[in-house]
Specification:
34% helix, 475 residues, alpha/beta, Rossmann fold, Porin, 14 helices, single chain, nine-stranded antiparallel sheet, eight-stranded mixed sheet
Length: 475
Amino acid sequence: MNEKKNYLTILFSLIIICLFSLNLFSQETTSWYGELNVSATTLPITLKIEEKADTTIILMGSPSQTNQMFSVTKQRFTQDSILFSMKSLNVVFKGKYNSTKDTIFASFKQGLLQENLIMVKTKELFETKRPQEPQPPYPYIEQELSFKVEGVNYDFKGTLTLPSIQGTYPCVILVTGSGLQNRDEELMNHKPFKVIADYLTRNNIAVFRYDDRGWNGDITDSTINNATTLDYAVDAQAAFDMIKTHPNINPKQIGMLGHSEGGVITSIAASKNPNISFVILLASTGQKGIDVLLQQNEVILKNIKMPKHAVKMQLSALKQMYKYIEKDYTSDEIEKRMNLWFEKELSKLNAEQRKESPFSTAMERTKFINQLSSNWMRTFLKLNPSDYLTKVKQPTFALNGTNDVQVLQEYNLPQIEKALKKAKNKNYKTFKAIGHNHLFQQSTTGMIDEYSKIEQTISPIILEQIKEFIKSTTK
């Protein structure tokens, strides 16, 4: 799941606008499309160039992430080339037109990322299609609500969708996965929680979804940037405490649905609060974070054809880091020990193998160490969801996809079931979603680069399964 966070950080950083002067007298607008390779995924990039009498406006965006087109600081151009940069994001774009000016051969650089990017002129600006995203007017009520968590300097905000202002309804609280996310769990222009909320509310089930701790807040606050999965469980409980007082919600029929890390958060909350009436786990883990991360890395790296020696070194580095984290070494001590380990392991490789290694540069090694020694990651690696699932007595529904490369169902779903049996939970069920990926899209490979290319946000099969489970437990 940490890989997912790294990808999201890169994806959000890539959306930019460029505005600069160009002494042209023609007035023309052209659209361009390219695909940027970012680790295990491919990121669509669009460019819109508006040539006016005394200026040229260039808009650059990442349509799989957002529909907005956004801006840069410095730029330079000639008749056959274009260059711009964004200092705050450490981005540099250098491109040359071909002779017919229908292709731009560019280099894109941001931090450690440096890739070639070919932009091709298109008739229209490329836009992602999300046919499931609900559009107003809605046949239900939307209410903006807020709540507080003791000791946290942040106002939590969320949306409650009600079938009607009349009567009381069962309610499900949606809990997002890893990484800072909004109430819609928005990813690559998909809004799965908004789709789920719309579907369930149309079927007489109220839904509350809320922005993560720190969303649009001060991320320098220690209660935000040092928060862990255990803290997020406190947030979910606070959401429950608030929603149970709502006049249109049946306080005895409030459940939680968590996706990915959100499933772990939900399990923790439910193990401590028997008044949570049902639990739904979407692509949740059932084993320690270190095991999830090792399995995830091995599958993804092999799928992108990383050399065997490089895969082996990546997995060995993860295991070595975990040894130090288990011993609660400080970040400085871990960095010192890991650099010695890297030096030893890299010395065993020839020049070509070192070049192919994920740790070929000091910057890559430092980035790896810093990411894995963060407060959140330390907790994630050591935390075992089964420790909490063994205390969950409420009706529980666990769903995992067979194409999920981030949380492998063949390892996690059996562990979830084993823990629920140990809890003597008499009302649980599991569902193996054939051909579904981590987002529960019907997919081909399940790889991350498919997420944005698939128009479907969440499979209707999954939506139906969720609805029927809630209906059966809230009769």
